[in-house]
Amino acid sequence: MSEEIGVLVEQILKVDKDENTAPSEALAEQLEHLDAEQLALLLGALPLDERLEQWERIPADEQSAILVELGGDTRLSILRTLSFAALESLFAKLTPEELIELSDDLPDEFIDIALRQMDQKQRQHFEHSNQFNEDQIGRYADHSLLVLPQNAKVYDALRLMRRDIPECTDALFLTDRAGRYTGTVSLHKPLSSPGHIPLAELMDEQVKPLAAEVSLEDSVDIIEKSDYVLLPIVDQKGMLIGRMTLKDGLQILRESHDAEMMAQAGLSEDEDLFSPVLRSSMRRATWLGINLLTAFLASWAIGLFEATLQQVVALAVLMPIVASMGGIAGSQTLTLIIRGIALGQISKGNLWPLLRKELSVGGFNGVLWAGAIGAIAAWWFSDPMIGVVIGSAIAINILAAAIAGVFVPLILDKMKIDPALSGSVILTTVTDVVGFVTFLGLGTLLLI
Amino acid sequence: MSEEIGVLVEQILKVDKDENTAPSEALAEQLEHLDAEQLALLLGALPLDERLEQWERIPADEQSAILVELGGDTRLSILRTLSFAALESLFAKLTPEELIELSDDLPDEFIDIALRQMDQKQRQHFEHSNQFNEDQIGRYADHSLLVLPQNAKVYDALRLMRRDIPECTDALFLTDRAGRYTGTVSLHKPLSSPGHIPLAELMDEQVKPLAAEVSLEDSVDIIEKSDYVLLPIVDQKGMLIGRMTLKDGLQILRESHDAEMMAQAGLSEDEDLFSPVLRSSMRRATWLGINLLTAFLASWAIGLFEATLQQVVALAVLMPIVASMGGIAGSQTLTLIIRGIALGQISKGNLWPLLRKELSVGGFNGVLWAGAIGAIAAWWFSDPMIGVVIGSAIAINILAAAIAGVFVPLILDKMKIDPALSGSVILTTVTDVVGFVTFLGLGTLLLI
């Protein structure tokens, strides 16, 4: 399936280059078979000119569904080229839920155009969701619900169920007159109960509604543990404002994984393959700048030993090995601890046994690699003392890496900074500086 | 919720240290309120002795459910201490589905003990699932199905639905006499149809069953696009062998994310906070060894310029900056391309426009940081030529990083190697070597 898109991209760009060839009917037909998500991926894979050309070919009534699926930068690149009238007719087809999703990464002027297209009720809907922030599940509450008044009977439920049931639904919700959530009834229950029984008697007391303020991540954990494929979302006043489904959970997990992967490289999750050069460059420059500061720290550490380096140039040659071994060993401990923090497994209670274990592992690998690298270096530079210096530095740096690997993420977590994003930069700064200072310091003591 | 586990770990270890204190009743009560998953996290967060102690306290009828939730190393650490009789009674409670999950990372001798506890039918069940490998959805097919013969009527469906319906079910499946899958009927349909209508008339023709050989990753994509919360799984002969649910999809996504994060640091997904030191050390040593080879490559590149370094020691001091800027810029391109490959967006067709764009971004940041770093270096070492040398090297290395960032993942992907796992190591080797050779080479030409 996914390879298909690459092939289509190739065909489109080929047709485009060779202007004599008219777009073949076979290609047009293949494009018609793609769903909104695949078309969105295709558009994101095309350079700007070809992207706009293809966009124009998409029937107007399919465009809004594709718009929702597009990545942030791809979407913006298209919207910026449309006329005001075209924007108006495109946005007129958006539901409030779709507009909320777009609003996470669309400038306000576009949102305003869309809001002006909506009726009173839809606008209220949007405003209501918009009061929650981008990490709260209430913002993304889906409004396709089966709802009945709390005094409804089994036959009311059966009548409701005979009509169209929204996708991903295995329960209905009861509310009081004001719209406050009062309970959840499995759709299975009314089937095996007499018609006059009040639904309130069939309520599943185990179901706890999701508070609208719950974070996206926590909401996935909660729905995964529930016995249903959907959960009611309620606001602070207890009003039933919508639902979250297992399918929403899948989407949240995917997006958070994607955002994390991009953020680890200092990229925005909106970035696409053909984001504008200037915007990409400036975003990436920030991350390069942060990393430059840490690189200067490492240089400064080396600079302390200029005199030594001048006398023993072998030290300069071997420096990357000391830094690299420390960085790798440290990131292994770091990864393990970050996972432990995310799972809530780490506390003051097991910190010391954990550090002891990581130091033991570091001790084993420190001795192993100190011996191996020391021997190679001694042979390379025909000087046993060089072997002693680099071996000791490697052992010390791997132990320091174990300590940093445990404490860097814990300290970041205490400071409310996500260790998965910045842990690695800080850790390698520590192992670089410790590695260079130990290595060149020992070199100064033992070789000069 | 997750912080709770950390607090409990602390309390357990405190009680344990201070032997006069008996385990408080409050603690025992808190432990009773944890579900199997939380207890598994708790056990994984305890050092071995305390882990075994807590395991003994868990009622025998809850142990097997917890066993399934444990991480690979944690599980093994407990099983290894149990007597044969204890293993037998523990395994006697496992379902074939649970045993399949355990078998992914449990030595055969344990599986054999468990199989001997099962009856003929359960064993067949296990063997049937076991014919699929660890990346095929058929292996994990869940057998809680609503199934009816293909000639069943609406009233048969209603009768079935009045009994207990398995969790995560919004459709029933029809099979022929031999057990071959013939169709899917939404549970909603029989509710609004007369009793004598054959279910075959209500089948949803859109539903395509999942082939048992489909990879776990693809199966998640497929169920996410389907209109149901479950899909039938069929083998090559068309036999209905089980189902996959959206909840399975969530679990697969979580586990693959976890495994990827661990693998990127050269860790096993089975590794837990207190895995045995020797085993951890040896696993991690492999990854350190691979990285050592790449570090030696960088050292070798530096070694080519020993004479230069001896004369201009400033070059040794500034080396980490050249390597670091190249590595960071390269990993930004790499991350973008890896995502593009995963989404199927990259092909021969858009390769050149993509490279052009990445080179433009690299050109922008190359010029920006060449200027900034060149100026700082010139000032630091009071030598404008040093600024020229490092500035040029940075610009060249950032451009080389863009090229490597595009091609390294594409080549790995062609070689069927996951670029998300090894791309970063290879990329930084390239940027290290190119950076050092350019920087020291230019230094040799311009400074001596």
TrEMBL record, chains A, B:
GO terms for molecular function: monoatomic cation transmembrane transporter activity. It is found in: Membrane. It is a multi-pass membrane protein. One of its GO terms (cellular component) is membrane. Residues 203-259 form the CBS domain. The chain crosses the membrane at residues 285-305, 311-338, 359-380, 386-412, 424-447. The keyword Ubl conjugation does not apply. Keywords: CBS domain, Magnesium, Membrane, Transmembrane, Transmembrane helix, Transport. Belongs to the SLC41A transporter family. This is Magnesium transporter. It comes from Neptunomonas phycophila. The lineage of its organism: Bacteria, Pseudomonadati, Pseudomonadota, Gammaproteobacteria, Oceanospirillales.
